[in-house]
Amino acid sequence: MSSFIDILVVGSVAFDSVETPFGKVEEVLGGSAIYFSVAASFFSSVGMVAVVGDDFPSLYLEFLKEKNIDIRGLKKVKGNTFRWKGKYGFDLNEAFTLDTKLNVFQDFHPEIPEEYRNAEYVFLANIDPELQLRVLEQVKKPKLVALDTMNFWIEGKPDKLKEAVSRANIFIINEGEARELAQEPNLVKAAKKIISMGPKTLIVKRGEYGALMFHEDSVFAAPAYPLEFIYDPTGAGDSFAGGFMGYLANTHNADNGIIRQAIIFGSVMASFNVEDFSLNRMKYLTYPEIEGRFKEFRRLCTFEDIT
Fold first, then answer.
1. Which of 47, 66, 265, 297 is least surrounded by Cβ atoms within 10 Å, i.e. has the fewest?
2. What domain count does the chain have?
3. Helices 32-40 and 236-251: crossing angle, nearest 10°?
4. Is residue 219 part of a domain?
5. Considering the domain boundaries, does residue 307 fall inside one?
6. First to last CA, the chain
């Protein structure tokens, strides 16, 4: 494997137990770094920094290698891997956490391998903003930094989070969290407040309603792909981020038009992810399928101007 990677991702690796109205799974592969890396790997080379316990099976390591994901930054330590247990009702936009065991993730202090420090694209998944800042101190001169977060950090470490956000080029957040961070119920006003914190681009994930992108003076709305079968929304946001960042790194371009294309590719990856539990759909996904659904998205959004 080449020592060079396009994208550095720092996040979690977990065993998930998930129940939805359409099924139930126990102790399956999950975590933000996993979903992101698998989605991004269809477009660019990815190096993952995360931690797992000594209970993490070699079978999963082989799966990551098969996807050409560089795992030299995946640290294996004594103890148990992070566990998350959740349940979804028929409103698949909201997960109810039933149990969380941080295990080895509780003492996670990301150390970026020398081979990863020149990565041009950096994605800081939903982790403690202090750790996100520590990563930014270790990388050299990334072309683009994107960052995700959650309400836990908005409420628990708002100052550190705002410092991390100020150092990101792109901030990815869900709709409720955007309103909470900005203390503003109107989403457009909330977006303006968040962009004033530093990032050039804000992407607001809206679950089954798609995504909104605020970039300079423009707004772009992407729908969610209309699916007949949705089994498990776990990891959809990270799969979106993976497709989005993977495409940007592949094009080496972050112009407004390319960002819009990247959002559609992110939406494409999220739409495939939710078609099965865990990474089951991604295991046999092909690039022609991705490209085909991108074109379907384009047809979905195209309409004629009035005459």
1. 66
2. 1
3. 40
4. yes
5. no
6. 55
3-state secondary structure the chain: CCCCCCEEEECCCEEEEEEECCEEEEEEEECHHHHHHHHHCCCCCEEEEEEEECCCCHHHHHHHHHCCEEEEEEEEECCCCEEEEEEECCCCCCEEEEEEECHHHHHCCCCCCHHHCCCCEEEECCCCHHHHHHHHHHCCCCCEEEEECCHHHHHHCHHHHHHHHHCCCEEEEEHHHHHHHHCCCCHHHHHHHHHCCCCCEEEEECHHHCEEEEECCEEEEECCCCCCCCCCCCCHHHHHHHHHHHHHHHHCCCCHHHHHHHHHHHHHHHHHHCCCCCCHHHHCCCHHHHHHHHHHHHHHHCCCCCC
The predicted pLDDT at position 104 comes to 96
pLDDT digits (tens, 9 = 90+) for 20-58: 999 999 999 999 999 999 999 999 999 999 999 999 999
Q: Is 1's pLDDT higher than 50?
A: no
pTM recorded for the entire structure: 0.95
CATH of the domain at 52: 3.40.1190.20
Confidence of residue 151 (pLDDT cuts 50, 70, 90): confident
Q: pLDDT tens across 55-104, in order?
A: 999 999 999 999 999 999 999 999 999 999 999 988 777 788 999 999 99
R_g (Cα) of the chain, nearest Å: 18
